[in-house]
Amino acid sequence: MQPLRDETFRRITALMHGAIGLSFNESKKPLVSSRLAPRVQKLGMDGYDAYIDLISRPDSGGEFQMAVDLLTTNETYFFREPAHFDMLERELSALKPSSVAVWSAASSFGDEAYSTAMLLADLQAQGRIGSAWSVLGTDISDRVLRSAIEAIYPEERLRNVSPTRMRRHCLRGEGRSEGMAQVGQELRRHVRFGQLNLCRPIEKLGPFDVVFLRNVLIYFDVPTKVAVVDRVLAELRPGGLFFIGTAEGRVPCSTPLQTLAPGAFRKVA
Ligand SMILES: C[S@@+](CC[C@H](N)C(=O)[O-])C[C@H]1O[C@@H](n2cnc3c(N)ncnc32)[C@H](O)[C@@H]1O
Fold first, then answer.
1. 59 an active-site residue?
2. Which protein residues touch ligand 1 with a CB less than 6 Å away?
3. 237 with 229: CB under 8 angstroms?
4. Exposure of 145 by Cβ count < 10 A (0-12 exposed, 13-18 middle, 19+ buried)?
5. Which of 58, 59, 174, 167 lies closest to 122, judged by CA?
6. What's the distance, CA 249 to chain centroid?
7. Which of 63, 74, 68 is nearest to 32 (CA)?
8. CATH 3.60.20.30 is right for the domain spanning 82-267
9. Ligand 1 atom closest to residue 77's alpha carbon, by position in its atom list
């Protein structure tokens, strides 16, 4: 197969930046090339030019989405960065709200949304919050969203879920499904998923009490990060909690935030 030419690399990065805010500098050329190569070969194309021609077409038959999936990582797992869930538990236990609305704004396969749902269901059972709680998970990728709705996971991804929570909220697979678990129906009733591109204007979704925007800002350049964070924070009620990945540094935005802990903030009222 022909190597990825500089001009073709620039076409790919311009397309991805314009459509979904992904930002790749020159140093990412080997990564882009190695992630797309197996797909280009599988489609029987002799080079990247034909592939970019295909994904640039509005009728690319889902191939644009496939390219997005190949160029981003959907890695996630239950109760990732547990300090954020501990903070949420402390906050809600102190406030005892009758309703809680949470948004997992780059939900990937749904692990973050269902982790939150497990926590909220347990708090409700203990009388620390009311019954009107809900979680919305959104992502750009319809592949991960379809999987999130099914809510079936390899048990490895549930390694941070306590045995009590596993028993209460998950059905363990048997026979051919051994090693897999499905989130129970009762919990799934409180969780919805939908497709949303964070780089486009957001139709009114909130106000939410809590927003997770974790481990997605890494893909964006600084102006895109600022626009995305401000757009997402417009859906968070004043005083609400906002989480990004603990390794993602400072939050670039113009919305006033109070820093609580690494990756954890409160929207200033
Ligand atoms: C690494 S996962 C983060 C999952 C979860 N928040 C966590 O921290 O475990 C990043 C997700 O961001 C999604 N994503 C990338 N660009 C996006 C965009 N412009 N709009 C919405 N989601 C996007 C990807 O599809 C991927 O599922």
1. no
2. 20-21, 72-76, 80, 106, 108, 112, 139-141, 144, 197-199, 214-216, 219, 245
3. no
4. buried
5. 167
6. 18
7. 68
8. no
9. 9
Residue 148 alpha carbon to ligand 1 centre in Å: 13
Residues 6 or more apart in contact with residue 42 via CB below 8 angstroms: none
Task: Identify whether 139 is a catalytic site residue.
Answer: yes
Residue nearest to atom 3 of ligand 1 (CA): 215
- Each residue's pLDDT tens digit, 139-187: 999 889 999 999 999 999 999 999 999 999 999 999 999 999 999 999 9
Tokens 């269902």, located at residue? 114
Domain boundaries, the chain: 6-71, 82-267
Catalytic, out of 139, 188, 209, 214:
139
Choosing from 71, 140, 157 the residue with most ligand 1 atoms within 8 A of its CB, the one to mutate for a pocket test is 140
> Looking at residue 166, what is its pLDDT?
97
Asked if residue 246 lies in contact with residue 87, where contact means CB atoms within 8 angstroms, the answer is no
- Encoded tokens for 221: 């350049």
Q: Which ligand 1 atom minimizes the distance to the CA of 245?
A: 8
Query: pLDDT tens, 45-74?
Result: 989 999 999 999 988 778 998 998 899 888
Distance CA 237, CA 244 (A): 17
Token representation of residue 96: 């005892």
Which amino acid, residue 220?
F
CATH of domain 6-71: 1.10.155.10
Q: How many CA atoms lie within 13 A of 53 on its CB side?
A: 6
